[in-house]
Amino acid sequence: MARRNDKNLLVGLDIGTSKIACLVGELKDDDQIEIIGIGTSPSRGLKKGVVVDIESTVTSIQRAVEAAEAMAGCDIHSVHAGIAGNHISSRPSNGSTPIKEREVNQADVDRVLDNARAVAIPADQQMLHLVPQEFIIDGQEGIRQPIGMCGVRLEARVLIVTGAVSAAQNIRKCIGRCGLEVDYLMPAPLSASYSVLGEDEQELGVCLVDIGGGTTDIAVFADGAIRHTAVIPIAGDQVTNDIALALRTPTQHAEQIKIQHACALTQLAGGADNIEVPSIGDRPLRRLSRQTLAEVVGPRYEELLDLVRKDLDRSGFKELVAGGVVLTGGSAKMQGLIELAEEVFHMPVRLGVPRYVIGMDEVMRDPVYATGVGLLIYAGQNRFAKRPELTAGRGLKGLVSRTRSWFQGNF
After folding, report:
1. 88-161 — its CATH code?
2. Which residues cross the membrane (predicted)?
């Protein structure tokens, strides 16, 4: 089969604690991204999103990339990759500059954003992403398109996302060992938002909760911009460990039991439903009720959701989240989790699955691929951005044409 060598190809590499997913998308003439290849591999060598074994991580990435290349019929040379871990944090910052020509131009915007990013960051941290939230001209707040407006002084409010230098270097090293270049490292709390959130939700206010294997990433949006991010070092792997300990079964079997039979609410688990539980060593199989399993899983998820609720309270944006909560990520597919989350948050909750792309149905229906699809959408936007670290676009239909006009009007 002939290999593709198409400049319209986009590649997103989601390096998770439990699974590595490589997605290949093609930018179509109708301004849509079509998923044409996908490769997954069990993640070996990461703990809570951070590389702890270089060789194992390289092998896992290589397998996922090779599978994606085979399906898409292409050679992958560079990727947009996600970076996760509880070392990632965010902080607000402000910048200001005089408007030299009395009318805001591109140079003024670049200058005010450079001033906003000039903040003291610890030596072991680096800036991963900068998101403009709003501009202010002579005290007038809430401006999103400052270019062409008149005034004397331009100010910018931004959110700076930082991460550990060592964590970023190790991710880049692992990808480089696979013969690939890193186009951009995207913080995990932001990646999934590009594929699962709508513009109306971001305007109204929404809290995105991405529950992965090693970490749970939180991103709060209000008034069309991201306002807060956080990472909680508890996620699906802790649920698996609880099942393994409580049911006295090997971890690999506990993971399968979680995926196939677990439920986050005991009232939704049929008491008469039984499951087979492999024992440790050569002991015989045991049969336990599904309700017993739910009594193990439910409290852990409730603890996790309560930590998210407390972080939302501390952020000061809870009252602005009128659009409710969106759960995504591989560990968000649990039966009963949406109902449990509504009890914890006392607001509407929905499951976030990838949107704004076409192609494989398995990708569109599965929140596991939310981050990978978000990386593809962001990669498409970067085709038109001179400074990709300053983009704050959303995953919308008609991506390319909208992105062109957005950058012409904003940056």
Report:
1. 3.30.1490
2. none
